[in-house]
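Escalated from tier 1: NAP holo job.
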Amino acid sequence: MADLFSMKGRVVLLTGASRGLGRDMALTLAGAGATVLCAGRTVKELETTVRAITRKGGKAHVVPLDITDEAAVCQQVEAIVRRHRRIDVLINNAGILYRQDAVDTPTETFRKTIETDLVAQFVVAREVGRHMLKRKYGRIVNISSVMAILGRASVAGYVAAKHGVVGLTKTLAAELGPNITVNAIAPGYIRTEINVALQKNRDFSDMLERRTAASRWGKPEDLRGALLLLASDAGAYITGHTLVVDGGLTTILA
Ligand SMILES: NC(=O)c1ccc[n+]([C@@H]2O[C@H](COP(=O)([O-])OP(=O)(O)OC[C@H]3O[C@@H](n4cnc5c(N)ncnc54)[C@H](OP(=O)(O)O)[C@@H]3O)[C@@H](O)[C@H]2O)c1
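Tier 2 regenerated the structure:
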């Protein structure tokens, strides 16, 4: 059965691999046999991810990339295809978040969040999707959030973008089939740098533990099963789906 989830021989482009969920995803995919192309802006941190993989005998490379720079995305996708001959899997993970009440949020801040968390995901998926169509194979996994299911004060741009990712996922699934699947993962609250302020907030943590069936914050490794399912051949008949991995946060009333 392990073969079903194997990533052996697969070339994966993973954005936001420099830290947080992306670093754990990179290690997971490489551990399952993939060559992981670790994209992001902070080369030093990407190198740390790549070193962690190669130390364990895995294969990975640094891809310096700001996903909001459209020309750079087009050029990098081309360069990767030239060098590695293909991109089998795209994990659209990079994202940002600003916390500010909507009434105090400058349009520019809202726009920047949408640009990174939605528009850039579209641009990367479009460029990689074109290539996958030619090859008649592909897996795209977009990272959304439980903020695509729930609303929440002070993160208007993020909530709007993550809802958009779910719609984008369905549309791309419709267009890119039958040989390419496009799915999303909607993680709950997982301890990373993106939510340090909330981790330090005792009231928030108490609320989260009370209203989550799993009674705890998530850990990056909680996403590994969902990631491998949607990135491997195990998920061949799943497309257009958003898989919520949140310990029960959005499914129970507590
Ligand atoms: N942690 C959670 O609880 C949680 C829950 C739901 C969804 N998510 C989503 O999961 C994804 C990863 O989040 P995380 O928690 O791992 O956050 P994180 O620790 O802040 O990491 C964000 C990653 O995105 C990269 N990134 C940001 N802007 C970029 C850009 N313009 N170009 C290229 N890379 C960029 C960052 O790399 P550089 O800064 O080096 O470029 C970093 O690797 C995000 O999409 C986030 O919305 C997280």
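The pocket of NAP is lined by residues 15-16, 18-22, 40-42, 45, 65-68, 93-96, 116, 143, 145, 187, 189-190, 192-195 (CB under 6 Å).
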